[in-house]
Design brief:
Rossmann fold, eight-stranded mixed beta sheet, 14 strands, 34% strand
Length: 203
């Protein structure tokens, strides 16, 4: 059974609908004490990093998600949910994250270009991936759908398993043991996105 963390922020319905399309039973879970009962866990998210962490903390979900990760069971962060896995973010000041992946979340650096990048980065973009079970069977050119203004910087290069280019290369997928994350929205990315979710189910 897969649980989707409900902390009153995020794209819960669309993520659940994607799993429904795959015929996989999922539960949107708002009780932190029950997270440990699931075989796998999804941490979704849209919006601002600091607000999301406040919602996690106010519901007791921050410690519950950390404990789940320590248990060794598979955890997948999606979009903002991936960013929350990191130590910190500079979005609207420095905000502490869950600390499950070493590194930080930073704004796109628009200053290096004569014509500034348009932020947020919205639309279809390629992801250049390392070999990983999450990406098994994907099309050679796996375009996925992105909506974000900040991106992750991994302290450990090995934790970055996917990169995309928007002005410059940035990390768009991460994995450290049982903790994984993807910046694009698989639930909005048609067959490639559904394939990633199916691969997560199959882990």
């Amino acid at each position: 059974m897969i649980g989707i963390v409900d902390y009153n922020i995020g794209n819960l319905a669309s993520v659940k609908n994607a799993f429904d399309l795959l015929g996989e039973k999922v539960v949107v879970e708002s009780d932190p004490a029950k997270l440990c009962t699931y075989d796998k866990l999804i941490l979704p998210g849209v919006g601002a990093f600091g607000d999301a962490m406040e919602h996690l903390q106010s519901r007791g979900m921050n410690e519950a998600v950390r404990e789940y990760a320590v248990s060794g069971k598979y955890l997948l962060g999606i979009c903002l949910g991936m960013q929350l896995l990191f130590d910190s973010s500079e979005e609207f000041g420095i905000n502490e994250g869950l600390g499950l992946i070493k590194g930080r979340v930073v704004a796109f650096d628009t200053s290096r270009f004569h014509t500034p990048l348009k932020v947020p980065h919205i639309g279809w973009n390629r992801m250049f991936t390392k070999e990983h079970p999450l990406f098994e069977g994907l099309d050679k050119d796996h375009y996925l759908y992105f909506v974000h203004s900040y991106h992750a910087l991994c302290d450990n290069e090995a934790d970055s398993i996917g990169e995309s280019v928007y002005g410059y290369r940035f990390t768009s997928a991460i994995a450290h043991d049982n903790v994984m994350g993807i910046q694009p929205h698989p639930e909005k990315s048609h067959h490639n996105g559904l394939k990633i979710l199916q691969n997560f189910i199959n882990l």
